[in-house]
Amino acid sequence: MSAGFDPNDLLDRLSSTSIQQRVLRTTMVVAAGAFLAFVPAAGGGGHPWLSGAGLLLALVAAAAPESHAPLGLVLFLGAFWLVAVPDRLSAATVPAAAALAVLHVAATLAAHGPPGVTVEPTLLRTWAVRTLLCVASAAGLWLVARAAATLHGPQSAAAVALALLAVLGWCLLVAVRITGGRSV
Amino acid sequence: MSRWRATASLIRACAGVAVLAALAVVAGRPDLLVLASPLLLHALAALRGRPTSEPVVRPLLGTETLREGEGTTTGVELTPAAEVEQVVLAARPHRWMAARPPAGVVARHVRPDERVARVQLPVATLRWGRRDVGDGLVGAVSRWSGFEWGPVAVPSRPVTTLPVPGPFESRTATPHPVGLVGVDPARRRGDGYEFESIRPFHPGDRLRRVQWRVSLRTGALHVTSTQAEEDSSILLVLDSGVEVGASGGVHGAASSLDVAVRAAGAIAEHYLGRGDRVGLRVLGSTSRTVVPASAGRLQLRRVLETLARVVPGENRDLDPERMRFDVRAGTVVLVFSPMLSQVSVSATTKLASRGLDVVVVDCLPERVDHRSGDADVATAWRMRVLERRALLERAERHGIAVVPWRGPGTLDEVLRRLRRRRPTAAGRR
What pLDDT does A27 receive? Predict the structure, then answer.
């Protein structure tokens, strides 16, 4: 039910949001703030300007969750993590991934209809379980990565090429599934 | 035709995974893969649930005829619903329809075992009238919010809101009952319950009418005679040419047309409930304007439905000289009007000149908000009130009674006066 983002009616849309929508949008901002807070916890040091930009982007995304602003926020947070955090597998990675998952799910639910919509509690419970599953997958992957890191395996060019091929395969799979195989 | 397309959420998950995974590989940062893994899981699950069939929308409406203040449901039904996780309906707001929730947006979670997805919005109608409701937009989201369908326009459906008749009760009989059977005491003798006189016995009189006490005293058979009981004919004339005052719906202030429509409905309900014949004529409407006089519950429905179709000021080109009223002699004509237009006064005097009993029920609300802050409007309104006073005096000079609508007992005094008055030649016709 995502409609195109139109800045002209942004205030109208914000004024007609339901209480649940306001909670979901606030959750987006809080989750983004939590993610930014985990950067120093992961040894990233303080980056007030970048953090401020991230929060500003989070506010924009919360104002228009049905647009692609949350995508920009996710990519910004990922890039910020890459730049700011030196430790590759810090313990703060899992809560940061959880914050990113909560941000993504809150944006998903906030874009489920017009601003006045209230999602049924049963659907909220379903999404809570799904979010837990997503966070559990992140925790599991973190454990596997930590275990693999202890082996100190060589990072060959062939391995990087194979991994890039896997990413390319993922992009192809997504394109085929999203378009239904019509244009690919 | 609308088709399923990827949601912003799915695009975000897929693009996020692709970018973060690429960065992870290039920069040798497995922690970015950890960050991307929740998005990956969501994207895989959403892609797996890509819908294959297009839903078909069927609009739903609880009931097509309501009374003011009553509620019903409007909504849509989507089939097939197996691939749908949530249906959202956003109904278009209408002035005289209240929805719950007030925004008119309702969402429903569709469980995987449901074949048909129904989403319904409770609405209540706040004012009499006929209007289209239920139009809006409907959309659906697939499992894991991967794909969205719509929004698709939902067609509207007509709903008729019958006026809630105001409280009305009259203990006075109509002046000239002219029918065969009914409850109004007639001017002639016959079978009935109202005592008329004790008179000498005539052949044909019933034995149970013999007044034995008088017969013994006088030595000749006497009987108790009663007044016949007949039904009456009532013509309701509604002036819809002018509406004064702002209507606040069934729970708010009433405009002159609100008062007129509800009063006409109340009087129709009262007299039809007694077995009388009631007809309706609407002055100023272009659609159905005449309901011939008849009796029964079905006639009440006809009268109320015609009242519900009244649109104020719809026809301003009425020529009082060309108006024809199919009225039987002895009919009581009740005119519901704020008496602010020449047309209504002309029609009323024309009916009175035929010798009919005509009563004007003044429907002008006691308080009319004419934006008194605007001096020009206030002056114009004062001039209108003076003009109305002149029109009312003209009507009263023609022997037309004017009574303000007060609910129960409004017509009692005026009907008593009309009953005492001798019927004119035209009235007896």
Answer: 96
| Minimum-distance CB partner of B34 among A94, A111, A123 | A94
What distance in Å separates the CA atoms of residue B118 and residue B147, rounded to the nearest whole number? 19
Instruction: Quote the pTM value.
Output: 0.75
Q: What is the CA radius of gyration of chain A?
A: 19
Residues of A in contact with B104 (CB under 8 A): 116
The arithmetic mean of pLDDT across residues B350-365, rounded, is: 83
Residue with token string 């004529």: B281
Of B31, B41, B90, the CB nearest to A88: B31
- Provide the CATH topology of domain B233-428: Rossmann fold (3.40.50)
The predicted pLDDT at position B99 comes to 86
Point out the residue among B30, B47, B141 whose CB comes nearest to the CB of A174: B47
* The amino acid at B371: R
Please write down the HEC assignment for all residues of B48-105: HCCCCCCCEEEEEECCCEEECCCEEEEEEEEECCCCEEEEEEEECCCCCEEECCCCCE
Query: Which residues have CB under 8 Å from A110's CB, separation 6+?
Result: A21, A24, A25, A28, A62, A65, A66
Q: Is the pLDDT of residue A184 over 60?
A: no
* CA distance readout (Å), B122 to A18, A142, A172, B102: 18, 49, 46, 10
Whether B156 has its CB under 8 Å from any CB of chain A: the answer is no
Best of A112, A133, A183 to disrupt the B interface by mutation (most B CBs within 10 Å)? A112
A67 is in which domain, residue-wise?
7-153
Sort residue B315 into left (φ over 0), alpha (ψ -120 to 50) or beta: beta
**The two three-digit tokens of residue B345, written as one number:** 């006064």
What is the C-alpha separation between B235 and B229, in angstroms, rounded?
Answer: 20
Q: Which two tokens stand for residue B69?
A: 């203040």
Q: Is residue A172 part of a domain?
A: yes
The vertex-A99 CA angle with A98 and A101, nearest 5°, equals 65
**Percentage of residues in chain A having pLDDT higher than 90:** 40
Closest by CA position to A117, among listed A9, A27, A23: A23
The residue type found at B221 is L
**Nearest C-alpha in B relative to A18:** B103
CB pairs under 8 A between A and B: 198
Instruction: Tell which CATH architecture fits domain B56-162.
Output: Sandwich (2.60)
State CA A149 to chain mean position distance.
25
CB contact under 8 A, A104 and B88: no
B252–chain A nearest CA distance, Å: 25
Task: Spell out which residues of chain B touch residue A69, defining contact as CB-CB under 8 Å.
Answer: none
Q: What 3-state class would DSSP assign to A180? A: coil
**A161 lies in the same domain as A78:** no
Of B270, B266, B259, residue with least CA distance to B174: B270
Beta strands, E only, B201-354: 222-230, 233-239, 277-283, 290-294, 332-337
